[in-house]
Amino acid sequence: MSIYEESLLLRSKDVDLYRRLRLSRLFELFQEASIRHTEQLGMGREKTLDRGILWVLLMQRAEIDRMPAYDEEILLKSWPGKTMHLLFPRYYSVETASGEPLLKASAVWSLVDAQTRRVVFPERYGVVIEGTVTGEEIALPSTVRKQETNFESSFTVPYSFVDLNGHMNNTRYFDLVEDSVGLAAEGRELMGISTEYSSEARLGETLRLSWNRAEDEVYITGESEKPVFRMTLRYKPES
């Protein structure tokens, strides 16, 4: 059984104006934990990036009891699920230093050729990751159901949103969504999120955003020449 663990003290750069961990920063921590654990398992850049293949995210999901806060010490855990042919499930959890569960998440990763952007067979590159079962896993993310929308805007991918894979980093989509839809700015607390990435967005590419906003839920989608992402966010009811 292989589980990555990291203790973190949340600083000012990690939180929003309500002193809660920013959603994009949460998923940055997940991304960084995934990379470090994969390296520990002997499947680092020598097996992938240096040979022209990239790790990419296909779907993500999180269930949140409470978002950790400024100056709070947390324990982040991450572990791989059983590889499913071309898909690499991964799980995450965050708890307080005293062991109080705060949130759980899951994701599905895959490998693509850096030049063709097509999915590759991991065994051809010797990429093998043994799965771990803890009993603490939440369900893996699934396809985000398409919904009717009644708000629209556009967004052009800036330089600062592009990562070493040459496309808009997955974490920046959360900033984009929270900036576009006002519930986060109003201080509403998240309960859950589901995200599906259909294709990548490159530097300078313009996305057409469409969304609807119910009382406690937001659905948003982004498209260019083809669908790029879909996301739903569920918020706690207002007291």
Features:
single chain; 2 helices; mainly beta; 2 domains; 12% helix; 239 residues; Thiol Ester Dehydrase, Chain A; globular
Description:
The chain has 239 residues and is mainly beta. It is built from two helices and ten strands, in the order E-H-E-E-E-E-E-H-E-E-E-E. Strand 4 (88-96) and strand 5 (101-113) form a beta hairpin. The chain is globular, with a radius of gyration of 18 Å. The chain starts with a strand and ends with a strand.
CATH class of the largest domain: Alpha Beta
Gap from first CA to last CA: 42 Å
Strand % is: 35-45%
Mean pLDDT: 96
Shape: globular
Give me the strand/helix succession. EHEEEEEHEEEE
- Total domain modules: 2
Number of helices: 2
CATH-defined topology of the largest domain:
Thiol Ester Dehydrase, Chain A
Please tell me how large the radius of gyration is.
Answer: 18 Å
Write the layout of secondary structure elements.
Elements: E1 4-9, H1 23-40, E2 53-64, E3 73-80, E4 88-96, E5 101-113, E6 151-156, H2 170-180, E7 190-197, E8 206-213, E9 217-223, E10 227-235
Antiparallel strand pairs: 1-3, 2-5, 2-7, 3-4, 4-5, 6-8, 7-10, 8-9, 9-10
Helix pairs in contact: 1-2
Question: What is the compact description of this entry?
Answer:
The protein has 239 residues and is mainly β. The chain has two domains: 4-125, Thiol Ester Dehydrase, Chain A (Roll); 151-235, Thiol Ester Dehydrase, Chain A (Roll).
